[in-house]
Amino acid sequence: MDTVRKVAVIGAGVMGAGIAAQVANAGTPVLLLDIPAKDGPDRNAIASGAIERMLKTEPAAFMSAAAAKLIEVGNIDDDLARVAECDWICEAIIERLDIKQSLYRRLEEVRRPGTAVSSNTSTIPLAKLVEGLPESFARDFLITHFFNPPRYMRLLEVAPGPATDPDIFASVSAFADRSLGKTVVRAKDTPGFIGNRIGIYWMQQAMGEAVEMGLRVEEADAVMGRPMGAPSTGVFGLADLVGLDLMPHINASMAALLAPDDAFHASNRDFPLVTKMIAEGYTGRKGKGGFYRLNRDRGKIKEAIDLATGDYRPEAKVKVPDALGRDLKALLTSPDKLGTYAARVLIPVMSYAASLVPEIADDVVSVDDAMKLGFSWKWGPFELIDKVGAAWLAQKLAADGKPVPAILTLAGDRSFYRVEGGRRQALGLDGAYHDVARPEGVVLLEDIKLGSKPLLKNGSAAVWDVGDGVVVFELTSKMGAFDDKILLLLNQAIALVKEKYKAMVIYTDAQNFSAGANLGLMVFAANIAAYSEIEKLIGFGQVTFKAMKYAPFPVVAAPAGLALGGGCEVCLNADAVQAHAETYMGLVETGVGLVPGWGGCGEMLDRARSAKGMPKGPIPAMAKVFETVSVATTSKSAAQAKEMLFLRPTDGITMNRDRLLADAKARALSMVEGYAAPAPPEFTLPGPSGKLALDMAAAAMHKQGMATEHDLVVAGALARVLSGGDADLMDIVTEQQLLALERESFSVLTKTSKTLARIEHTLATGKPLRN
What is the CATH number of the domain that holds 205? Predict the structure, then answer.
């Protein structure tokens, strides 16, 4: 099997439907089957109902509503024979061996020979699943364990059996990597594989020790969050997110499957409070609340449960001291309550993870990748061990009378990871270091940095040679916020590429590309009435972005995560964009009482007037851009960014985050031969009459209570730019004239107290102010 052209997903529950949605997000047709509906005329109602629910849920399962059209529905009684159309059949039905095997026997009768069949299970061993089935079935069978929600969680654990055809494993893995955007970790056929085996142990250990020590849930989560690199939810917040009602089932499954001497059993304690909470409907975020809840009766006050009494009280803010939060060994050796708790949780977790290699995986990298991608840890267990030292951990375990895992003895006083000759290496089970291998075609800037120095660098950006005549302009400021340093270095980079290189890619390895301009600088300048400095920054940004746009070489922007405000505008001014599928783009300046100031208005007008289906004339394009920008609309995916015109139809989308840089580089190189900078656009805009129409639309929103008084002021400033200012329908409005209108409107708004209040509120809270 060389390619996966169509996928069948059997089981339209939360996981099955989510897997089907992600396959559709990849542009691949899907056949979604479930049992026939017992009531009503539509026998496919269970599968079709799942699609309807996914179109309404948040966070959205579909990257675009259009993706849902790629899913065909059916039922296993009437439509099972249609799996012969598919190259991969993914089963995600109830976790019962007898029901699964019954389905497999039916599949064996109708599927094409050589079609991959997989189960999404993590609780039933593969050997049991294929027991008694034909050899031909076992040869094509494997486990593909997705994490929920399948669209957003990057980890896919793939476990082949001893009889699995290597080509089947390779084909499914390649499709999952390139098309579904997953990082594929090869797991062994052991209970819970890698992620759940360690992650569930961590949760049980953390919750049990918190109860035993009499900690507040906020204290436990503060320790289990930033200091160890786990998400800010910590462990109790994570349990709320996953669902408390799932915990007893998962724990019971692990307890039944693991050997009697496994350390999990000691951590698997009964929590009467959790049993009581589930019975009363407190199952976490999907229920009435969990360890935390939002008390709407008291004005949306966030409350936390008392682990001793079960009563709720206002949430307390707990912060681990910076000195301990930054130094894991200092935290683990701190004699205070938080340090003692950290040691009683993390030392056993690190030890447990170390004891499981090679049982669950053949290398430490797979274990670390699984925990980082499946549980969103910043560092995997072996990276955590490196922070305290393998020798220190071994000595601590021995001093406490605990067994020392063989891999810690093997490491001795060495680390599990090192950099040698510009390559990241990991300690193998043979006692030697080996280069950390990347899948073919993956290029990571973090790897390039290990063996090279930046061509240019300052406090907010850096420029790197990534080979073949391409440089990467890297945003390194917090949240990729644009400031004068980035603009200065971008100008220097443009000059450097003109002289010595072929093309430029704008990129960062960080989670978010750019949250926009550095608003803190603007607030500081406005508070001391240094408005000329704000005007200089806006003018400098315009000149820089247009210098980039009209440079004699191709520029490709490669955003991922947030690309807002100025981060969106740099993409709009690039020759092309290669976006990660999870890119959230928008010109959101109106939310802080401003208008786009770095060319965003003109670039959006240019796209809107040539958009497919856009009526002719100056009004429709202007109205479309106003509709999008005036309410700070943000796309919820790169696919949706195309629908909103932030991306061109020709811009590329990369599903796998690890492949984004390589794809952007390839796109830039493909544009080099015969490259010519674009011609500056010219516009015919309606002027004051067009502004009046937009003002009337904003006034109608205000009348309906959907816009504040200051929203009208901001919308009016935006309308003046988009309508061309004082232009007449007979006039040609140049790009430079639109830029001047942006500067004018931006400058006026920065001098209003309400815009300043919006900016200060956003900086302080991260939320918009409706004033």
Answer: 1.10.1040.50
What is the pLDDT at residue 1? 43
- Using an 8 Å Cβ cutoff, are 652 and 663 in contact? yes
Range of the domain at 327: 195-418
- ∠ CA 260-263-269, rounded to 5°: 90
Question: What is the spatial distance between Cα 183 and Cα 711, in angstroms, rounded to a whole number?
Answer: 43
Indicate if 451 and 315 belong to the same structural domain: no
Same domain, 182 and 288: no
User: Is the pLDDT assigned to residue 730 strictly greater than 80?
Assistant: no
Residue 605 lies in a domain: no
Q: Which amino acid is at 552?
A: P
Q: Are residues 316 and 453 in the same domain?
A: no
Give me the residue label for tokens 């080509």: 167
The answer to whether position 517 is within a domain reads yes
Evaluate whether residue 607 is within a structural domain: no
Q: Are 75 and 34 in contact (CB under 8 A)?
A: yes
Same domain, yes or no: 169 and 236: no
Q: Are residues 674 and 705 in the same domain?
A: no
Run of H or E including 240: helix 234-242
205 and 345 assigned to the same domain: yes
Which of 367, 364, 390, 391 has its CA nearest to residue 377? 367
DSSP H helices, 59-191, are 97-110, 126-130, 135-139, 166-178
d(CA 378, CA 127): 33
At 118, the amino acid letter reads S
| Cα 144 from Cα 151, distance rounded (Å) | 15
- Residue 152, phi then psi, degrees to nearest 5: -100, -25
Residue where one domain finishes, among candidates 130, 157, 186: 186
Tell whether pTM > 0.85: yes
Q: pLDDT category, 650, cuts 50, 70, 90?
A: very high
> Looking at the 3D structure of the chain, how many domains does it have?
4
- Asked if 278 and 244 touch (Cβ cutoff 8 Å), the reply is yes
Give the tokens for residue 588. 């959101």
Contact partners, residue 617, CB within 8 Å, separation at least 6: none
Name residue 402's beta-bridge partners.
none
End-to-end Cα spacing for the chain: 59
Among residues 7, 19, 6, 11, which one has the least CA distance to residue 47? 11
Together in a domain, 274 and 363? yes
Mean pLDDT of the chain: 95
Position 526 scores a pLDDT of 87
CB 576 within 8 A of CB 651: yes
Quickly list DSSP for 660-706: HHHHHHHHHHHTTTT--PPPPPEE---THHHHHHHHHHHHHHHHTTS
Q: Tell me what the mean pLDDT of segment 615-636 comes to.
A: 95
Which stretch of DSSP H or E encloses residue 742?
helix 735-750
Domain end, chosen from 153, 186, 219, is at 186
Question: The domain spanning residue 12 has which CATH number?
Answer: 3.40.50.720
Distance (Å, rounded) from C-alpha 109 to C-alpha 555? 53
Residue 735 counted as domain residue = yes
Which three-class secondary structure string do you get for 602-654? HHHHHHHHCCCCCCCCHHHHHHHHHHHHCCCCCCCCHHHHHHCCCCCCCCEEE
Phi-psi region of 611 (alpha: psi -120 to 50; beta: other; left: phi over 0): beta
Is-contact 248 204, C-beta < 8 A?
no
Residues 669 and 698 in one domain: no
Distance CA 439, CA 174 (A): 10
Q: 571 near 518, Cβ under 8 Å?
A: no
Task: Express the helix, strand and coil content of the chain in percent, nearest 5 each.
Answer: 50, 15, 40
